[in-house]
Amino acid sequence: MAVERTCILVKPDGVCKGLTGTVLERFEKAGLRLSGLKMARLSRAGAERLYAQHKGKPFYDPLIHFMVSAPIVAAVWEGPGSIQKARALMGSTNSPEAPAGTLRRQHGIDNRHNLIHGSDSAASAEREIAFFFKPDELFAYASADWQSAELKGNEHGKSKKTSHSVPSR
Questions:
Q1: Which residues are catalytic?
Q2: Could you read off the pLDDT of 51-61 as tens digits, one per residue?
Q3: Phi-psi label, residue 115: left if phi above 0, alpha if psi -120 to 50, beta otherwise
Q4: What is the mean pLDDT of the chain?
Q5: Within a domain: residue 15?
Q6: Quick one: what percent of the chain has pLDDT higher than 90?
């Protein structure tokens, strides 16, 4: 069974306000696993492709202008129920109406300058992930992958102590 993935964008306002780390931390603390991460500057054509389903709506042109105004950070998060979990963390689109404690309520201004974009369905997640990431830019890993044999323990199952020294200058 495939693990559910969602695509999250820290929008230009979030990047420029220095809130990228805050967003990433909130998703990690919610139990989601980071699978891909990159910073990009959307071109107008790219933003138009990303938001094509909104073309013709009154907010489309201002949204495109905003999304190309500064870099964004794209992230892929995975885990059971990741799409709904992410949407709950974000809060509703219009920041002042978002529930207390959500990212948009805490850091957004209105329904455009709302810090973050998140996939609203599995189909959207698949499309948005493919827009920002090549397959080899997404990673699967286990929590213990970083540990060497020495850190994992000896034959008795006890961790070996290591000492690290920093050379003096």
A1: 117
A2: 999 999 999 99
A3: left
A4: 90
A5: yes
A6: 82
